[in-house]
Amino acid sequence: TPRSGGETHDLRSAGVRERGPLAQRAASWRARGTRGGDLVMVRRAGAAAMAALVVGLCAAALAPLGCEAYVVPGSFPRDYTLGQDLEVHVNAVYSNVTVVTYDYYSYPFCEHEGKARVDESLGEWFLGGRIRGAPFSFTFLKREEYTQLCSREIGKKGYSRLKNGVDKQYRVRLILDNLPVTRLSVDKFFEMIKEYGKNAILDTVDESFSYIGYAIGGKDEGGYYVNNHLTFSVLYNDAEPQTMTKGFYMGEGGVNVEQTKDDDKTDKYNIVGFQVLPCSVESDVAKLWPKGFDPQECGSYKKQYVKPGTTVNYSYSVYFEKSEVTWSQRWEPFLHVRGKPMHWYSFLDSLLIIMLLAILVAGILMRTVRGDIARYEQGPGEIEREDTGWKLISGDVFRTPPSPGSLVTYIGAGVQVSACLFISLAFMAFGLISPVKRGALMTWILVTYFLLAVFGGYVGVKFHIDITRSRDGWRLIALRVSLFLGGIVISILTLLNIVLGAAKSTQGIPFLPMFLLFLMWVGLSIPLTFVGGYFASKKEPVKYPVRTNQIPREIVNKPTSVIAHPMFIVFLSGLLPFGVMYVDLYFIFSAMFEHLYYYAFGFLFGMTFITAIACIEMSIVSTYMILCIEDYRWWWRSFYAGGSVALYFALYGLSYLIFDSGLEGSLSKFVFICYLAIMSTIVYVSMGALSFAVSYVFVRKIYAAIKAD
Fold first, then answer.
1. Which of 67, 46, 69, 1 is nearest to 606 (CA)?
2. Would you list the DSSP string of 260-274?
3. E strands within 608-697?
């Protein structure tokens, strides 16, 4: 909010009456001499409030970026030649009806020979992935029509495991050349895209978007059966030429880049698809190969039902198919944005909400300044009016609020996590971070959050000095900022680890990554918070435009009903910002708890940015309304006004859990509630901190305009 109308106020606007004709003449002269400049400042105030529209339109321009970029900078295709061995990996098995994942080898499947574990990133550990070497062995362009893996006798424990996995619809995720296996026909996908356009609503192979991976089995009238034969199709295409940078050198026009293009791609290929047809085939039927068994039509044979004591023969087939899909297009079936038109409609509705709020805020600013100008335009002989509303509490508006240490702790932690989120979302919107790289997003968020601790410490300590007018206790404030949000998250994750560890789920974080997270928190985040707090402690407190009275003013206007209570206005302020985000929340929760890829990062960035603007504008409006009823307790309420969107966020999460998620089992619901608590806390402190910071500037500016002594 810009400084508006500061030079046009005389002593009358501070509640002090001027007496005598000389004073009246001086007031009239000041009003005539500065009226034009004040009108310019009015326009500037309105323009500053309307600047949210420009920012929203910029976010709208960024929204499609995350929807079209599938190639991640820094990733390059891997070329394969005839006869080269292919590494197949298997991730933890997952289900759409439960968020609890389990290790692939905890089921009675064939074991892997050789190295079973694969090195994983820190983010992959936190996402519950456990990548192992798969028992399958592929050779590039070598067709294998039938290969028997092993025979396993299903005991009581194994049968119970399979039965539970089938009932809860667990699926196996295989990985080849960083591509997940799918039941979706990749070539058919591109045919539909070519025919219906990129905004086509695509049908999947079943009713639940479960095209990633394959089911471990099923059940029918005959009982439970296991998918013991897998027919793989590996799609490949000719290798694409690569442009490589050899070096930089100084030329006449400055720095020149020397590049070479690798056109020698003869007999080199890229893998562009990995498809599977899972089948349940009775062991006696599979033994009839090659005459009585066709792997490509394996779904038409008698199923392999399982009971305790049943011996199951596991086998697979591999076929290689030439495809027209290029390497840069191979992730499009998985990163296709679901409901793109719905995203756009929601985004445009959000821009409309922001426009209406910006007009409301601009109206408040213009009304405030124009009202002050009208005072100066009163000529001699006119009846002077007493100050009313927010001007009467100028001597108490900057009085130290209750529990200032807790307030600045929330603000410091909220600013830190807000900066982390907006930087991460900006990188994702520009395609610099992608789910193509497993765990890269979570690793980036963790590292960025810890590094931004210096920013959180600086903001928390600086607000502590400004509010309390003292540097005493800044070290304690820095410590509280560093421990607050990180302590909550690590405590919840520790509780989750204990519960999930007892269930032997891979969703729990192992000891070593958890210990590494703790070390990063203690050894990196906390010291950086003190560094930021140290630099803030060297700053002088900000100078307030008005002086605080020694005796607090009595709050006369007491609320007569719940609707008239200021806290009702505060919590109602979060309703409009929630209306901005609620459409995207469904897709976010679906991606998190139904194990789907989320790639609408451009829309997510725009939605988050507009939500923050909406929270800020609603906080300004609610703060102004509270001040107008002569209530100077605005500090915490401006924070609550922005943070109240977290209440609606949590309520929506609970409604999603009950009505839309389809999650089964108390353990899955417990995990959902724990993650919902973490996300709600982050939304609360981030939006609350941003709203308070802007409301703080707003209050300082409007009271600087009256120049009360």
1. 67
2. EEE---TT-EEEEEE
3. none
Q: Is the dihedral of CA 604, 606, 607, 611 positive or negative?
A: positive
pLDDT, tens digit, 9 for 90 and up, residues 50-106:
444 444 444 443 444 433 333 444 457 889 999 999 999 998 898 888 888 899 999
Q: 481 near 412, Cβ under 8 Å?
A: yes
Question: Which of the 8 DSSP states describes residue 143?
Answer: -
Contact 362, 45 (CB under 8 A): yes
Cα–Cα distance measured from residue 703 to residue 14, given in angstroms and rounded to the nearest whole number: 10
CB neighbour list of residue 192: distance below 8 Å, 6 or more residues apart: 200, 202
Tell me the pLDDT tens digit for each residue of 280-339: 988 776 666 667 678 888 877 889 999 999 999 999 999 999 998 888 888 887 776 565
3-state secondary structure of 600: coil
* 315 vs 323: CA distance, rounded Å: 26
Are 323 and 237 within 8 A, CB to CB? yes
Distance separating alpha carbons of residues 369 and 436, to the nearest angstrom: 53
Structural tokens at position 47: 């323009």
Among 635, 195, 607, 609, which Cα is nearest to 405's? 635
Enumerate the β-bridge partners of residue 316. 147, 230
Rounding to the nearest 10 degrees, give the CA dihedral for residues 585, 591, 593, 595: 170
Report the alpha-carbon angle 146-91-222, nearest 5.
Answer: 55
CA neighbours closer than 13 Å in the CB half-sphere of residue 494: 9
In terms of phi and psi (left: phi > 0; alpha: psi -120 to 50; beta: otherwise), the region of 326 is beta
Angle (CA) 186-189-193 rounded to 5° is 145
Q: Which amino acid is at 593?
A: F
Burial class (CB in 10 A: 0-12, 13-18, 19+), 683: buried
Question: Tokens 């719905």 appear where?
Answer: 342
Say if residue 290 is preceded by a cis peptide, omega within 30 of 0.
yes
Q: Indicate the helix (H) or strand (E) that contains 667.
A: helix 666-706
Whole-prediction pTM value? Answer: 0.80
Q: In sequence order, what are the residues at sequence separation of 6 or more whose Cβ sits closer than 8 angstroms to the Cβ of residue 437?
A: 72, 75
**Is there a contact between 471 and 156 (Cβ–Cβ < 8 Å)?**
no
Confirm if 276 and 265 have CB atoms less than 8 A apart. Answer: no
